[in-house]
Specification:
heterotrimer, A: 585 residues, alpha/beta, Rossmann fold, four-stranded parallel β-sheet, 24 helices, 54% helix, globular, C: 71 residues, mainly alpha
């Protein structure tokens, strides 16, 4: 058995040797020195107790009941250096601590078990966990992903953000259980009945495309869980896939997302759960090129459904619509299941309800201080559900969040009272540090109100006629994450200025994805515009899923430097300014 | 071999984008239309009254200004073009006919749109959307795009005749150039070729960057000259290779390969002739624009195409080129930071060796070729490996023969 | 009254056990014992398992299909 110390050293534990080492240690212990140490500690404790009479008991009681005020929290002291683990979890006052314990920690742990039963079965789950690295190494660390995202949150922000996380966790379980149930690799290499009822697609192909078959077939994005979700929850796993991608000769400079997406295939760590594959050119050259390698490794019928690049051009719409129709025809022919207009209508209309609520959320975020969703929950939830398409869990989550948001507005509860700057995050985010905004608020009062990827897929889907449906679906896909702003003309990426105004932001966190050619290719123009418009912008370099290129600590340092040297501001919580978390999940 | 006719003059023409012939055509009142990608059909830019110039940035060094705008993590070809544009090297352009076919050249062309770089009051930059497939839907789409974003702007802004008759005439002239280039290139298929890879590349590049009506006679003369050209008694090369990959407009790079003993007999890269110099065939009753759109989609071997059978057919096509040109191996080059070719190179390197038994030398290069020493070592080693393989094959054949005789 | 007493007698041990379990869980939660166990024992052992797992060489996947699937 392996034991990993908090200093990230791995020790092989063998019972015999362990006993021997223990005996040796007992033998070699200097008991006199040990006793002296204990005595010293006892004296120090007595001294502390004597000093207790000077303590402000009212303050103590208030801190216990309500939690400490923001500036006194010292959240950085809670970390075990390097690991991201907590010496103890944060005390948020009685109400919020118990809420966190009962309604987040306990509730989600229980649901992580019950959802497995609900969406599949235990044997498949165990087999999948033991077979796939992205599964085993990630699944159990989910609650720490919650912890990182919810640090310092109180009241409505804690509740609403946690519901978003809950939704994503549940949908993740549904997806991997669906994959495992039909995975050839977990069933002796044989294709079962479920295998024949699944459609695999690239994670960047929207789930909306498959609404016409949602009642009879299940569409599961191939890399969504193995790559995208794991980066957020436990970023150690993805590094294996990036290295594998390069091991067969790919240079290191292409987008690491694409590298990881096909590295999964190089390591044979992909579940074989469907007879066909749908891919697309979303979001960039790298995605197109990845299809070539994925096609090779999958070696089964593959349909590429590209979207036009110059998507504002009215002339491109028909072409895009025809490609969607060709994709539908491909699914019909390969899967032997006819297209169902009724199913499309049902799911598109249901999805529209999610879009309507998203618009409501944007309205509250833009125009009031009562928006109860923190930056990371907003970003991840929006990209996850809009990419995935309509699922019951999103409606459940939205119902909870709507209630919380309405209460916050009614009672005028400002969930982020220490906001110094309203921030918009632009371009694509570091997946290994998506919770940077939680840190930035706790440390500097930077409230990330909205981010670029949240603003994608901004399209209602009409269902009155087939032609309208197709028209809107084409637009919807053209405005997919990362591509809507990044392609089709520089005017799209410069929509930043309009969104800054709309969301009343006074600062930009400009993600600088070092391997994104599209964003690198317009770097200088942004610099010029920021200067011309006198906008405070912090460039945050990163390599999407790969924490080795720019570490989380370095990202914090860049923000710290800007806040101290340019903004001349003091941190709200000085313990968060600098800490080591290189080995954390 | 003795010098090929016009080759020194052609070499000089390649030393700058705004060369003597470009200046002459401009002086004659013709419009210079820049482009970067095969997906912008040059035949449309060569309509009467205008001429195409495929952009290059020869004699580039460190593109410092462009690096500020596009960072040092983008393809150097795009950056060198921007640098040259900022320096004023493309002020002769009347228009840039742009395509969003690879990210960095797209960004370069967007800079031309956004910033007041090209000091020419008539200048405009227009983008065309290029499909990712070769099916009929894509051809139709492409036709619409070329009409709306190439032909109509040229007609509206410069009064260019875009009638079917004009298009047919442009096709005819274009085909004439293609025929000549193909004829010149066909000498590379000989057992002992009578033209070097570098010479051919110079000719091909001139045909891409100079007004065609000013070079066509020279091409004819070169073709004639080649009929009588004899190879050296003892050729300097030790093996023949196909050069495949991403953007390459540098004859010195080909020279480097050839200095190492590998004669480049086929050029399957962005500025090469395979594909690029196939004649456009207009079917009976077919609209000439449709024929052009169909031609450019069907002939392209760009890794941007996504249909499954097209992705897979590309490898077969490359293997066929090796066979057709009697090459001993392939050098697959990729411009650093080119996403398309970094993946295509990876799979080509494995598949062509594994499935077709073709030796592959897989390299990454920069637009400004600084790493000459390292590349030279790679090419020399590749040539030696081919020679060793050849010796081994000869020995094995000898042993078999001896065994048979015994 | 007797019913209530009976029910209380019946439920009390359950409540006691539930209470103790709840307290233990709270201790696990508060001191991040779940995270510590995962970090020190579970993850390294699983990672070792995945590192040692035999994996096929997927670069041997055939690559010859050229017939169009799209009709």
């Amino acid at each position: 058995m392996i034991f990993k110390t908090f200093e990230a050293k791995e020790i092989e534990l063998k019972p015999k040797e362990l006993l021997k080492a223990l005996g040796q240690k007992l033998k070699n212990t200097d008991y006199k020195a040990k006793a002296a140490g204990i005595r010293e500690k006892a004296l120090a404790a007595a001294e502390k107790i004597r000093g207790l009479k000077d303590l402000d008991t009212k303050k103590l009681a208030s801190d216990f009941w309500n939690g400490k005020p923001h500036e006194e929290r010292r959240l950085g002291d809670l970390y075990i250096p390097g690991t991201g683990l907590y010496k103890h979890r944060e005390w948020r006052g009685v109400k919020d601590t118990l809420y966190y314990f009962n309604m987040i920690w306990l509730y989600n742990y229980v649901h992580m078990v019950t959802d497995i039963m609900k969406y599949g079965n235990l044997p498949d789950f165990i087999k999948g966990t033991l077979r796939y690295r992205w599964m085993g190494q990630t699944y159990l660390t989910v609650m720490h992903w919650f912890d990182r995202g919810m640090e310092g949150m109180r009241g409505p922000a804690l509740r609403a953000s946690a519901w978003h996380y809950r939704g994503m966790t549940s949908e993740t379980i549904r997806q991997f259980q669906a994959m495992f149930a039909s995975d050839k690799k977990l069933h002796g290499g044989e294709a079962n009945e479920l295998w024949k009822k699944h459609i695999a697609h690239n994670e960047t192909v929207s789930g909306c495309i498959f609404y016409p078959w949602r009642d009879v077939l299940d569409d599961v994005p191939l890399e969504m869980i193995p790559y995208f979700v794991t980066c957020h929850v436990n970023n150690h796993t993805v590094l294996n896939y990036i290295d594998a991608a390069q091991s067969i000769g790919l240079p290191a400079d292409p987008c690491p997302m694409c590298q990881a997406e096909y590295g999964i295939f190089v390591l044979d760590d992909y579940p074989d759960y469907a007879p066909i594959m749908i891919t697309s050119n979303e979001a960039c050259d790298g995605s197109v090129a990845t299809s070539v390698l994925q096609d090779w490794f999958l070696n089964r019928p593959l349909f590429a459904m590209p979207q036009p690049m110059r998507y504002d051009d009215p002339l491109v719409q028909k072409h895009c619509q025809k490609e969607i129709e060709a994709c539908w025809k491909f699914v019909e022919e390969q899967m032997g299941v006819p297209f169902s207009w009724d199913q499309y209508v049902k799911y598109a209309e249901s999805f529209n309800k999610l879009t309507i609520f998203e618009h409501e959320k944007w309205d509250v975020a833009a125009n009031t201080p009562y928006y109860p969703v923190n930056g990371v929950a907003q970003a991840l939830y929006r990209i996850y559900y809009s990419q995935d398409g309509d699922r019951p869990i999103w409606h459940e989550v939205d119902a909870h969040v709507k209630k919380i948001m309405e209460t916050a507005i009614e009672k005028k509860i400002n969930s982020f009272p220490k906001t110094r700057h309203r921030v918009i995050a632009w371009s694509c985010a570091p997946l290994y540090y998506s919770n940077w905004c939680t840190w930035a608020y706790n440390c500097w009062g930077l409230n990330c109100v909205i981010n670029m990827d949240s603003l994608m897929f901004d399209q209602m889907l009409r269902t009155d006629t087939y032609e309208h449906a197709l028209e809107d679906l084409a637009w919807f896909n053209e405005k997919a994450p990362m591509r809507a702003m990044a392609v089709g003309g520089h005017e799209h990426i410069f929509q930043l200025w309009q969104y800054m105004e709309r969301f009343h932001c006074d600062m930009v966190v400009m993600y600088d994805q070092l391997q994104c050619k599209g964003m690198q290719g317009i770097h200088g123009m942004f610099e010029d515009e920021f200067r011309k418009r006198n906008i405070h912008a912090i460039w945050v370099p990163h390599a999407l899923p790969d924490k080795r290129t720019v570490s989380r600590r370095e990202i914090r340092q860049i923000i710290n430097d800007y806040m101290t040297t340019v903004m001349h501001e003091e941190p709200l919580d000085p313990t968060l300014v600098d800490f080591e978390d290189g080995d954390s999940w | 071999m003795r010098d090929l006719k016009h080759i020194i003059e052609f070499e000089q023409l390649l030393e700058e984008a705004n060369n003597d012939l470009v200046r002459q055509a401009k002086a004659e009142g013709k419009r210079a239309l820049g482009y970067t990608c095969y997906f912008m059909p040059e035949v449309l830019l060569d309509l009467p009254g205008c001429f195409s110039v495929r952009l290059r940035a020869p004699r580039s060094s460190s593109p410092d200004m462009a690096t500020y705008y596009m960072s040092n993590r983008t393809c150097m070809y795009g950056r060198c073009l921007l640098e040259r544009a900022i320096e004023g090297g493309f002020n002769f352009l009347d228009a840039e006919m742009a395509t969003e076919t690879c990210t960095v050249t797209c960004r370069f062309q967007e800079h031309l749109q956004m910033m007041d770089i090209i000091q020419n009051p008539d200048f405009f930059c227009e983008f065309t959307d290029v499909p990712f497939k070769k099916n009929e839907n894509s051809v139709e789409h492409y036709v619409g795009q070329l009409k709306a974003h190439v032909l109509e702007p040229l007609h509206e802004r410069f009064g260019i005749d875009i009638s079917d008759a004009a298009l047919l005439k442009a096709i005819e002239e274009h085909n004439e150039v293609c025929r000549l280039i193909n004829e010149i290139g066909s000498y590379r298929k000989l057992d002992i070729p009578t033209i070097t890879g570098r010479e051919f590349q110079i000719i091909q590049l001139v045909s891409l960057t100079c007004p065609k009506y000013l070079i066509i006679d020279k091409l004819r003369e070169i073709a004639e000259d080649l009929k009588h050209r004899r190879p050296d008694k003892k050729p300097a090369w030790r093996c023949k290779v196909v050069l495949a990959g991403s953007e390459d407009d540098d004859p010195d790079f080909t020279k480097l390969i050839e200095e190492c003993g590998a004669l480049v007999v086929a050029d399957r890269h962005c500025y090469g002739s395979l594909p690029g110099r196939e004649e456009i065939k207009v079917a009976e009753g077919e609209d000439p624009l449709h024929a052009i759109a169909r031609h450019y989609l069907n002939t392209s071997e760009c890794p941007r195409f996504m249909e499954q059978h097209t992705m897979r057919a590309r490898k077969q096509s490359l293997a066929d080129t090796v066979k057709e040109y009697k090459a001993d191996g392939i050098i697959i080059e990729q411009m650093k930071f080119c996403e398309y070719w970094s993946y295509e190179r990876t799979i080509d390197t494995i598949i062509l060796q594994r499935d077709y038994g073709i030796p592959v030398c897989s390299i990454e290069k920069e637009y400004v070729n600084n790493a000459v020493g390292q590349l030279r070592t790679r090419f020399q080693a590749f040539v030696e490996s081919i020679e060793i393989k050849r010796i081994a094959q000869t020995q094995a054949a000898g042993t078999d023969k001896a065994e048979e005789q015994a | 009254m007797k019913v209530i007493k009976f029910l209380f007698k019946l439920l009390w041990p359950v409540l006691k056990i539930a209470g103790i379990a709840y307290l233990i869980l709270f201790i696990v939660f508060y001191f991040d014992l779940d995270g510590k166990l995962l970090y020190t024992v579970v993850e390294p052992n699983l990672a070792r398992r995945y590192d040692k797992m035999p994996r096929p060489d997927n670069t041997q996947t055939p690559y010859g299909k050229t017939e169009p699937f799209e009709k």
